[in-house]
Structure to design on (308 residues):
């Protein structure tokens, strides 16, 4: 890993140099501080081209804790001409590494309002062959430890007896599948917990619309798109207050923020299942910030920073 930034730079130097000769590059826009951002800054120095680097999440939430990676992240942040953070929490992480505040602009992610629209729950469930009766919790995310699916299943098992017909659908794939399957059996919930695997992106609006609530119990995040996509479909979210999640769930009318404990998650899920939500209002709020808005802000940043 300590060599990834350098190797990425060397691997694309020839191609980017040729491109610059044929068509003068105005700036380099890199996403993910390390290794991509470091490679971009090295390219910028060789070609004398300004560089902007965006922080997405793990690059600032986890990688700086690696002893050999932290100095390269600090160097990248110091040498990039402009920086973008997708959440205010990531901006704070940049500042803690000594970055000048005036270099950073917060540009949160958006959502595709044409794709993510609410569907009637019965239609969504029918499309997915989801049980039509009872309430449904949906969680979308890779089956990796940081997404908190073990915690979700433990919290779910705590509340199951009080919610007749309750089902949990986990959409995603990853290394934790075998251990999650074992845990479901140990908890006696394997008949009502469904690990449906990775599903086509086009199917996600149906999954969110089928949910009474959606849930994300991550230990770290940047600006998780699944939260905004759920809201765009009118589905409230129960989530841990990490990364940009408190910025997304900025109102109690949109969801419930919990601590990363079984007790807190169980209470939050019960509150989410019991509350009467205004799903139309949630959808309007969730769909308000489109990717077109994000693109306009990025365009403005590049033009005001680098136009000659």
């Amino acid at each position: 890993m300590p060599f990834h930034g350098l190797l990425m730079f060397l691997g694309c130097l020839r191609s980017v140099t040729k491109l610059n000769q044929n068509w003068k590059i105005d700036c380099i826009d890199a996403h993910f501080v390390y290794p991509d951002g470091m490679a971009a800054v090295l390219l910028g120095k060789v070609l004398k081209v300004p560089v902007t680097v965006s922080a997405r999440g793990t690059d600032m939430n986890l990688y700086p804790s690696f002893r050999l990676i932290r100095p390269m992240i600090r160097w990248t942040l110091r040498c990039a001409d402009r920086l973008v953070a997708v959440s205010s929490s990531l901006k704070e992480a940049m500042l803690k590494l000594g970055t000048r505040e005036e270099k950073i602009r917060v540009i949160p992610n958006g959502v595709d309002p044409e794709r993510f629209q609410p569907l009637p729950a019965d239609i969504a469930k029918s499309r997915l062959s989801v049980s039509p009766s009872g309430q449904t919790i949906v969680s979308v995310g890779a089956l990796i430890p940081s997404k908190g699916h073990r915690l979700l299943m433990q919290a779910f098992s705590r509340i199951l007896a009080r919610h007749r017909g309750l089902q949990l659908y986990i959409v995603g794939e990853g290394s934790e599948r075998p251990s999650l399957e074992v845990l479901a059996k140990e908890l006696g919930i394997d008949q009502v917990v469904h690990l449906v695997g990775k599903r086509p992106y086009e199917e996600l609006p149906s999954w969110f619309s089928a949910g009474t609530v959606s849930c994300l119990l991550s230990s770290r995040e940047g600006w998780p798109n699944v939260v905004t996509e759920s809201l765009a479909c009118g589905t409230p979210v129960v989530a841990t207050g990490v990364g940009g999640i408190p910025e997304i769930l900025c109102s109690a009318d949109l969801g419930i923020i919990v601590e990363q404990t079984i007790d807190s998650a169980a209470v939050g899920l019960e509150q989410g299942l019991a509350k009467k939500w205004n799903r139309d209002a949630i959808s309007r709020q969730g769909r308000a910030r489109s990717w077109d808005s994000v693109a306009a802000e990025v365009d403005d940043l590049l033009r005001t920073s680098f136009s000659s």
Remarks:
- The chain is about 45% helix and 15% strand.
- Residues 4-110+291-306 form a domain with the Rossmann fold fold (CATH 3.40.50.2000).
- The CA atoms of residues 150 and 179 lie 9 Å apart.
- The chain has two domains: 4-110+291-306, 121-286.
